Amino acid sequence: MADSSGLAGVKVMVIDDSNTIRRSAEIFLVQAGCRVILAEDGFDALAKIADHHPDVILVDIMMPRLDGYQTCALIKKNARFAATPVIMLSSKDGLFDRARGRIVGSEHYLTKPFTRDELLSAIERHVSRE
């Protein structure tokens, strides 16, 4: 696990309505030394983002009430969090979905199910460590 030591202490928020995805992401991230904040949907996440100030946000696209695109757009419109990297999660790997994610401001797109290495490398790509 030496490859992921660069993520120690990084705060990652995982927003997904699937308990399985939230838990598997949490396990991978905790093993890498990250601090993890979990949210079940966009509304839950927006309240927690203000409290926890995550370094990176993972957001599922297909969620009830407030979908991932809407959640990402709201995060990016807030001046305090506009620079926070957002990684979209989706079981769909279409060009349209990726383009729509870019339009609302996401920095990366990860297809579910993802492996531990895919998840950690996506986060490492967007975390600035000085």
Unreliable spans: none
Order of helices and strands: EHEHEHEHEH
Largest sheet, spatial ordering of strands:
2-1-3-4-5
Roughly how many Å apart are the termini? Answer: 21 Å
* Molecular shape: globular
Radius of gyration: 13 Å
- Helix/strand/pairing category: alpha/beta
Q: Give a count of the beta strands, DSSP E runs of length 2 or more.
A: 5
Share of helix, binned: 40-55%
Mean pLDDT: 92
Which structural traits does this protein have?
130 residues, alpha/beta, 5 helices
Overall description:
The protein has helices at 19-31, 42-52, 68-77, 95-103, 116-126, and strands at residues 11-15, 35-39, 56-60, 86-90, 108-111. It is built from five helices and five strands. By secondary structure, it is of the alpha/beta class. 42% of the residues lie in helices and 18% in strands. It is globular, with a radius of gyration of 13 Å. The two termini are 21 Å apart. Strands 2-1-3-4-5 form a five-stranded parallel sheet, sandwiched between helices. Helix 1 links the parallel strand 1 (11-15) and strand 2 (35-39). Helix 2 packs parallel to helix 3.
